[in-house]
Amino acid sequence: MATFTWTAQLTTGTLTIGATDKVGFYGTNFGDAITVNSYQDSTHIENSSGTHLCTTNHVNNTKYLTSTTVSINGGGSQTLGASVPTTAQCPLKINFSHTSAVATSAGKFWADNGSDVNTAPTDVTFQAGEQSDTSWTAAAPKSAAVTLTDQASATSHDFYIFCSASPTAVGDKTAFRLGIELTYQ
């Protein structure tokens, strides 16, 4: 049986992201607004009621600076590459597992409006990449997805994702969802 498990990688430890939990992009702290046309200063996990779940150790924050640079957890500009960010610094670890050994291919990660994979989030610019990518991808909608690395036959496959979001208008952004898909054989 095939299963995806989403995990938030915290500054210390990890937190499993439940089916109804949300990845939240905020200003300096949980609940703080992000200035229009700026990228988030913090990343958090909340449940479907809006309760903050990562209250002691927060999700690693990867902030888009330029097409090839990132700020990790509020640090200075770093050039994306083989070890920037590290797998441990990526905010999302998405595991695909299967009871039989399978290879993965044609993997994609994207953001959409929450109801149609072919429509970008409303009033949000979303950037993402897979660990070791050397540039960000404007990964919304699905047709613009980050291409994930094909993986050899195994029962468990980890994908480490860095991501960043910027509002293009004021207000809460509820028409926003992250997605992943792949082919396995």
Structure report:
With about 180 residues, the protein is mainly beta. The protein starts with a strand and ends with a strand. It contains no helices and 13 strands. The protein has one domain (about 5-185). About 0% of the residues lie in helices and about 50% in strands. It has strands spanning about 5-10, 15, 20-25, 40-45, 60-65, 70, 75-80, 90-110, 125-130, 135-140, 145, 150-165, 175-185. Strands 1, 2, 8, 9, 10, 11, 12 and 13 form an eight-stranded antiparallel β-sheet that branches. It has a three-stranded antiparallel β-sheet with strand order 5-6-7, with no helix packed on it.
* Sequence of secondary-structure elements: EEEEEEEEEEEEE
Helix content: under 10%
What is the number of helical segments per DSSP (H or I, 4+ residues)?
Answer: 0
Largest sheet: 8 strands, antiparallel
> Span between N and C termini?
12 Å
Global Rg = 16 Å
What is the β-strand count? Answer: 13
* Overall tally of structural domains: 1
List the helices and strands and how they pair.
Blueprint: E1 3-9, E2 14-17, E3 22-26, E4 42-46, E5 62-66, E6 69-72, E7 77-79, E8 92-112, E9 124-130, E10 137-138, E11 146-147, E12 151-167, E13 177-184
Antiparallel strand pairs: 1-2, 1-8, 3-4, 5-6, 6-7, 8-11, 8-12, 8-13, 9-10, 9-12
Question: Quick summary of this structure?
Answer:
By secondary structure, the protein is mainly β. The protein has strands at 3-9, 14-17, 22-26, 42-46, 62-66, 69-72, 77-79, 92-112, 124-130, 137-138, 146-147, 151-167, 177-184.
